[in-house]
Automatic annotation (TrEMBL):
The keyword Transmembrane applies. The gene is cvpA. One of its GO terms (biological process) is toxin biosynthetic process. This is Bacteriocin production protein. Pfam families: Colicin_V (PF02674). Keywords: Membrane, Transmembrane, Transmembrane helix. The chain crosses the membrane at residues 6-39, 60-80, 100-123. The keyword Secreted does not apply. It is a multi-pass membrane protein. GO terms for cellular component: membrane. InterPro entries: Colicin-V_CvpA, CvpA-like. PANTHER family: COLICIN V PRODUCTION PROTEIN.
Length: 165
């Protein structure tokens, strides 16, 4: 077991533990909250800049302030909604199921994070290192990362290479 394997195991384990603590509902609503908050912030940035932050010059700074405040407000509102829904899940007795499904979600997310890290590392010399070559899990994650290569822009896809492939 090399440092690569330990990193992969820790990343996946941490993801599982955190997702199990929050539950599937909390994890999914957290992802949805971030996406919806970004959309809300994009839509609210200009109106907020023109009204609430009109005193800020240059106007680009006012737009940034509008974006940040819109994002924070939407995220806070959705955080409270997530708290209510996870409380309701516990109240009806599905807390254990929610946590188990959260752990499964965390496992999948952990694999995705490590695979993404392996894909990014393909642009460096790390895959040629002894630690990487001797790792038990590197062939699995290299294979998973190679599945994503056809979806990359061509100039990036040409640069992805792993010694074992």
């Amino acid at each position: 077991m090399t440092l690569f394997d330990i990193f992969a195991l820790c990343a996946i384990g941490l993801s599982v533990v955190l997702a199990m603590m929050r539950g599937l509902v909390g994890e999914v609503l957290s992802l949805v909250s971030w996406v919806l908050s970004l959309i809300a912030a994009k839509m609210a940035a200009q109106p907020l800049a023109e009204t609430v932050f009109s005193f800020i010059r240059p106007s680009a700074l006012a737009a940034v302030a509008g974006f940040i405040s819109g994002f924070a407000a939407a995220l806070l509102l959705l955080f409270f909604l997530r708290s209510l829904l996870t409380g309701a899940i516990k109240a009806i007795g599905l807390g254990g199921v929610n946590r188990f499904l959260g752990a499964v979600f965390g496992l999948l997310r952990g694999f995705a994070v490590v695979t993404l890290a392996v894909l990014v590392c393909a642009f460096t010399d790390l895959p040629k290192s002894d630690e990487w070559q001797n790792a038990y899990s590197s062939p699995f994650f290299e294979g998973a990362a190679s599945v994503a290569v056809p979806y990359l822009p061509e100039y990036l896809a040409k640069k992805v290479s792993y010694p074992s492939f």
